[in-house]
Amino acid sequence: MSQNAIEVNDVSMKFNLSREKVDSLKDYIFKAIKGELQYNEFWALRDINFSVEKGDRVGILGLNGAGKSTLLKVISGVFKPTTGSVKKHGKMVPLLELGAGFEPQYTGTENIYLYGSMLGYTKDFIDSKYEEIVKFSELQKFMDVPVKNYSSGMKSRLGFSIATVVEPQILILDEVLSVGDAKFRKKSEKKIMSMFDSGVTVLFVSHSLEQVMRLCNKAMILEKGQLLAYGDIGPIAEQYSQMIN
Ligand SMILES: Nc1ncnc2c1ncn2[C@@H]1O[C@H](COP(=O)(O)OP(=O)(O)OP(=O)(O)O)[C@@H](O)[C@H]1O
């Protein structure tokens, strides 16, 4: 049995950024058909190699645009890397853009089933967890209201409540501890901490070095798509605070 929960091997991710100034969709389609669209290549990640041992909680640090979210999306399978591969050992739950998969015209209840099925839950499982999800979100009164009438904080709360109702072995967190108001933030951090206690492996992006130091035992620094440093939280946090000061 592998002691690693995640293995990232030679991962690079290239985006094609359009260089064209196209005036209309028609113009764009014509140019695309004629092969006249021009792109700039942009490498958001370059030759990333690391592995995460089971039970490690790894903070991912880096300035805006460093590639943190892209890396989490590659590991979660949202993006296929341009080169390289990712191996996972264990059930993974990604908490990325919470509620991004909601259907605005459907109610809270309908979206619980829809979003739950997107996360791979069965109907029976959602039936058994429905009350718990609604209670945690504190949106009891809004379950019959279409999600388009929710505030963005309410959508994130519902998304968080649905996604965290399972017990994953690998948890991928992108800034989700900043969802909702101060009260919900405290509650969601407590919930994540209780998952940590059960020995889950965590990859965690946060702009708060203080939060990473509190929650993680390891960390990495990404800079312009490259892995600058990876190791125990103490020395990495020190290196990062020198970078940002
Ligand atoms: N779908 C995409 N198409 C084109 N470029 C993208 C796409 N997604 C990300 N990028 C680019 O890749 C780079 C890394 O973005 P990413 O969101 O991973 O950074 P980040 O470290 O998470 O930043 P932040 O701290 O601002 O959230 C950025 O320059 C961004 O513009």
TrEMBL record:
<dbReference type="InterPro" id="IPR015860">
    <property type="entry name" value="ABC_transpr_TagH-like"/>
</dbReference>
<protein>
    <submittedName>
        <fullName>ABC transporter ATP-binding protein</fullName>
    </submittedName>
</protein>
<keyword id="KW-0067">ATP-binding</keyword>
<keyword id="KW-0547">Nucleotide-binding</keyword>
<dbReference type="GO" id="GO:0016887">
    <property type="term" value="F:ATP hydrolysis activity"/>
</dbReference>
<dbReference type="Pfam" id="PF00005">
    <property type="entry name" value="ABC_tran"/>
</dbReference>
<dbReference type="InterPro" id="IPR003593">
    <property type="entry name" value="AAA+_ATPase"/>
</dbReference>
<dbReference type="InterPro" id="IPR003439">
    <property type="entry name" value="ABC_transporter-like_ATP-bd"/>
</dbReference>
<dbReference type="InterPro" id="IPR017871">
    <property type="entry name" value="ABC_transporter-like_CS"/>
</dbReference>
<dbReference type="GO" id="GO:0140359">
    <property type="term" value="F:ABC-type transporter activity"/>
</dbReference>
<feature type="domain" description="ABC transporter">
    <location>
        <begin position="6"/>
        <end position="244"/>
    </location>
</feature>
<dbReference type="GO" id="GO:0005524">
    <property type="term" value="F:ATP binding"/>
</dbReference>
<keyword id="KW-0813">Transport</keyword>
<comment type="similarity">
    <text>Belongs to the ABC transporter superfamily.</text>
</comment>
<dbReference type="InterPro" id="IPR050683">
    <property type="entry name" value="Bact_Polysacc_Export_ATP-bd"/>
</dbReference>
<dbReference type="GO" id="GO:0016020">
    <property type="term" value="C:membrane"/>
</dbReference>
<dbReference type="InterPro" id="IPR027417">
    <property type="entry name" value="P-loop_NTPase"/>
</dbReference>
